[in-house]
Amino acid sequence: MATNLILGVVLLLCLAAVAWPFLFYPLILRALPTVAEAPVEGPKPSASLLFCAYNEAAAMPEKLANLAMLRARHPELAILAFDDGSSDGTGDLIAAQDDMVTLVRGPGRSGKAYGMKQLAARARGDVLIFTDANVLLDADAIDNLLARYADPQVGGVLGSLHYIGAEDSATASVGSLYWRIEEKLKDEESRTGNVLGADGSIFSIRRSLYPDFPDSVLDDLTVSMAVVFAGKRLVKAKDVIARERLVTARKDEYRRKVRIAARAWHTHAHLRPQLRRMAALDRFKYASRKIVRWFGGLFILLGAVAAGALAMRLSPALYLAGALGAALVIWIGVRAKSGPFAALVDVMIAYAATLQGVAKAMTGRTFTVWNPAQSR
Length: 376
What we know:
This is Glycosyltransferase 2-like domain-containing protein. Keywords: Glycosyltransferase, Membrane, Transferase, Transmembrane, Transmembrane helix. InterPro entries: Glyco_trans_2-like, Nucleotide-diphossugar_trans. The termini are far apart. Helix content is about 55%, strand content about 15%. The chain has a single domain, classed as Alpha-Beta Complex (Spore Coat Polysaccharide Biosynthesis Protein SpsA, Chain A), CATH 3.90.550. The chain has twelve helices and eight strands. It has an eight-stranded mixed beta sheet with strand order 3-2-1-4-7-6-8-5.
């Protein structure tokens, strides 16, 4: 009886841990008071927009057209790009627009973190705006972003990423749903003080806060967290909108999540001394939205083992029925291109990829370079 109780408790704890970032954590955030930004008006700061590219020739015409639109609205906006040794002519396409974009060519494959550091060292704007080569910004994104810096306590501003192509596959659908949840969490974190980290699609910081860091970390997380460590606010602007096409193939998404998770863990190790000095609320946010998720695959595995052991102790027939049912769901999900079973498989794949990435990082494996997904 005692063993059954222990297995039941383990199962419930694992279920709670998996649900924590998506259910319990948001409920806690909603109960916290709002931390208002100071209603300050003043001139908008100068800015430099930075992005890195590797073999993005297919995306460059649309990207360059988007940059031309932004430059027309903001003639003073400096735009800098880093080409990480592209072999498809990406660098040449950017270089052809040298009146609009300052191109820095890398020595070969060096990685995004290295490239962004090169660009940040050359930038001269008061605010550094970071984006990705395959991301498009809405026309008023720069205006709305820079307006938030009127508050001197604001040290960094994130935008909102809207994904395109959610209907193209189950993988894209799950990715879109996950990201909508992520965006809402960031909104609540911003309302209650600080967002705990940015992604690379669209974010910015005051140039004076830009930190130094190794090439093995996630530069977007490292750079954005420097704002929090400096005692400034890292906030999210809903009206600063970036758009990106979703990855539709499972193998592309799996590789991407392994790489990101490994770099995230190296980032965590690099930032650990500063993370420990954060305010208690920020430490709670960081643990809830990042650490608990990184080990979600482990919680699922432990929960499945506990559920199986409990079912076997209660009734071997119940265990057999559960195992066959799970195998059938996975088989249908793997073969399906859409629907709830396919979505469930994609969720499991995402957790497995994240756990694998963290495990690789713990053994010392680093990922400094990247390849664009072919299924965008």
